[in-house]
Specification:
It is a single chain. The protein is mostly helical and about 150 residues long. It contains 8 helices and no strands. The longest helix is centred in the N-terminal third of the chain and has 19 residues. The protein is globular and about 30 Å long.
Length: about 150
Amino acid sequence: MSLARLKALFGLNDDGARAGSEVAASAIDLAYTVAVLLIEVAWADHNVSAEERRAATDGLRDLTGLELADVEAALVRAEAHIAEQVGVIEFTAELMRRWSYDQRCALIEALWRVALADAEVAPVEEGRIRHISDLLYVEHGDFINAKLAARDGE
């Protein structure tokens, strides 16, 4: 999925800022929600590589349009959450309420980018993405398309 399409999906202008409004606290909370899912996949094999962390940072910036400092803060909070092994259902439920189907598909693609970042997709990483995809009611065909798009760098 192209950066321009991602920006259009999330209501961002060319500068990455929210079109017509300031980035509100709810956007930061949404970033944390997305960050938890990205870190969940990166941490699935209990080894977060620098490439996976970078892919999570890039994915979160692309999906939310937030500044790097806000992205980093959300990722640090997410890492603390994952260390507690609390689960992802509450986060996927939030995205089901707030995001369109296309936005959820874009997230699945970002999750695949994290898993593919270190050039090694562990079976547990694929399982986590599949589980998150199921919780987000993403159809299997779109799950596969997201995987292929992430793999092919589209």
